[in-house]
Amino acid sequence: MAADRIPAPQERRLRLGADLVSGHRTHLAASALLALLSTASTVAVPLMVRDLVEALAEDGGLLWPVTLMVLVAVGGALAATASGFLLARIGEQMILRLRARVMDHTLRLTLHEVRAQGEGNLVARITSDAMMLRSIVDIGAIQLPLAAITVVFTLVVMSVLDWVLVLITIGSFALAGAAIGFVVVRVRRSVIAQQTALGELAQRFTAMLAALPTVKAHRAESRAAGSLGEDAGRLTESTLVSARLQSLIGPVMGLGQQIALVSIILGGGARMAAGDLTMPDFTAFLLYLLQLVAPVAFVASGIGQLQAGLAARARFDELLALPQETDGATGADPEPDPHAPAVEFDDVSFAYDGEPVLAGVSFAAPRRGLTALVGRSGAGKSTVLTLVERFLHAESGSVRVLGHDVQAWPLDRLRRRVAYVDQAFTLLEGTVRDNLRLGCDQAPHDEALWQALEAVSLREAVEQLPEGLDTVLGRATDLSGGQRQRLALARVLLTDADVVLLDEPTSQLDSINEHRLRELVDDLARSRCVIVVAHRLSTVQHADHVLVMESGRRLDAGTHTDLMSRCPHYEDLVRSQQWTTQSTPLPARAPA
């Protein structure tokens, strides 16, 4: 399978206009037409009032003028309501597509990039940032252009009534507009700072909730709350800056309205005294002036909100520009080499953020059997597993799986052949069934799920859950640490992976379940390559191959017996856990 083409950064930018009309041209056109009808009724009503005033002066009939004015006003209101609903629907569907796209993109980022961004900051993109982006749809798509059109048409009609008063009106609002423009250019920067602070708060709070047992155990609730309070304070400061800027828009526009109103009354009185303006025309002009304030204010405030939306768009563009994991593979899928080791490292070095983690590591794990990686914490054992899975990439050397460099495998194919269980034995927040089926291309039937649970001694515990296999894990109902480990191992049993990577599989198991786990691992090792990162010697002593690591280097490799006779470092590790071997006799491993 050829590698999927990775879009260029400019192709991953949000194209709001194209996305907005995609599949919604009819609804968008209907919304625009209804908005135009509403605008037309808004412009027409003051002229009807002028005719009504003339009819009153001439003692004419009022029934039809009043009826027509009411019908036009009500029709305009209904048209505005329908237009707003259609636009809201289009906007929500666009945001739905955006959220789906962002979540898909985020899940395809490298682990390093996700950790650098922070979970809370990424969550803020699909929550507060997405809602802020709605302002571009709600305001920028139709409402802001129509408000501008309303202002233009209103000024045109007002100029027909009296062009001198129109000049006075434009001059009054121009002063307010200059002040508002000065404010708007600063709104966008303040909104970006506000959203960044919000993401940081969400990230800190998410991390604190994940560490809540530790916080409570150390009676650190007050200290943690104080730290979060400081983050919340920074968010409040940035929010107040934005609020202070945007709060200026309304009063400044109101001041412009008052200046215009006083100027128009004085100027209009002088024009009527000179006989250049009639009372009905002046009445209509005043109504237009009062009516003009709303769209002008909307344009001013809308531009400010639009800046906030554009700031949110910039944050989305920043996220979408982050590189995803790339296949790197070209041409046809590689066929596993039946004579090659399952996993082979050849002089592999790796550094994390400039800090060396592995230095010239070489070893080979056979197609069948148990290979154990041992060493003190920080020796680089878990990094070896992440390089096999291509969560990280070696800086030099070669990592091969089933006879081919990991870069030659398409990611999907590579991870289909390699099963991985991390130190945390992570489960999804979903049902037991969903977690068991996670790595399966074809959903196994329930009997196969129960057999896998039976193999890891977890069937009885799952049967006792409120909904059995359909019990949702992760909130009110959850499993113990050891049970989560066994469920993660049951998930491995349901895959057809050639290579199984286990990172500290016995860290939360008691001696009885640890013995069962060893039997399960032995069964897996008879038909697959099993690589185990282990601290407990009970997991290592019967391994076919033991690799001893220290400070990112390979010290030695061999069987447990061989290493005890020639590797002082390994012997020290054994002696440091001698009580384990004394308290829990280890059964001899059956030959593969």
Automatic annotation (TrEMBL):
<dbReference type="GO" id="GO:0015421">
    <property type="term" value="F:ABC-type oligopeptide transporter activity"/>
</dbReference>
<dbReference type="GO" id="GO:0016887">
    <property type="term" value="F:ATP hydrolysis activity"/>
</dbReference>
<feature type="transmembrane region" description="Helical">
    <location>
        <begin position="135"/>
        <end position="157"/>
    </location>
</feature>
<feature type="transmembrane region" description="Helical">
    <location>
        <begin position="61"/>
        <end position="88"/>
    </location>
</feature>
<feature type="transmembrane region" description="Helical">
    <location>
        <begin position="28"/>
        <end position="49"/>
    </location>
</feature>
<feature type="domain" description="ABC transporter">
    <location>
        <begin position="343"/>
        <end position="576"/>
    </location>
</feature>
<dbReference type="InterPro" id="IPR011527">
    <property type="entry name" value="ABC1_TM_dom"/>
</dbReference>
<keyword id="KW-1003">Cell membrane</keyword>
<dbReference type="Pfam" id="PF00005">
    <property type="entry name" value="ABC_tran"/>
</dbReference>
<comment type="similarity">
    <text>Belongs to the ABC transporter superfamily. Lipid exporter (TC 3.A.1.106) family.</text>
</comment>
<feature type="transmembrane region" description="Helical">
    <location>
        <begin position="163"/>
        <end position="185"/>
    </location>
</feature>
<dbReference type="InterPro" id="IPR003593">
    <property type="entry name" value="AAA+_ATPase"/>
</dbReference>
<dbReference type="GO" id="GO:0005886">
    <property type="term" value="C:plasma membrane"/>
</dbReference>
<keyword id="KW-0067">ATP-binding</keyword>
<feature type="transmembrane region" description="Helical">
    <location>
        <begin position="282"/>
        <end position="303"/>
    </location>
</feature>
<keyword id="KW-0812">Transmembrane</keyword>
<dbReference type="InterPro" id="IPR027417">
    <property type="entry name" value="P-loop_NTPase"/>
</dbReference>
<dbReference type="InterPro" id="IPR036640">
    <property type="entry name" value="ABC1_TM_sf"/>
</dbReference>
<dbReference type="Pfam" id="PF00664">
    <property type="entry name" value="ABC_membrane"/>
</dbReference>
<dbReference type="GO" id="GO:0005524">
    <property type="term" value="F:ATP binding"/>
</dbReference>
<keyword id="KW-1133">Transmembrane helix</keyword>
<protein>
    <submittedName>
        <fullName>ABC transporter</fullName>
    </submittedName>
</protein>
<dbReference type="InterPro" id="IPR003439">
    <property type="entry name" value="ABC_transporter-like_ATP-bd"/>
</dbReference>
<keyword id="KW-0547">Nucleotide-binding</keyword>
<keyword id="KW-0813">Transport</keyword>
<feature type="domain" description="ABC transmembrane type-1">
    <location>
        <begin position="29"/>
        <end position="308"/>
    </location>
</feature>
<keyword id="KW-0472">Membrane</keyword>
<dbReference type="InterPro" id="IPR017871">
    <property type="entry name" value="ABC_transporter-like_CS"/>
</dbReference>
<dbReference type="InterPro" id="IPR039421">
    <property type="entry name" value="Type_1_exporter"/>
</dbReference>
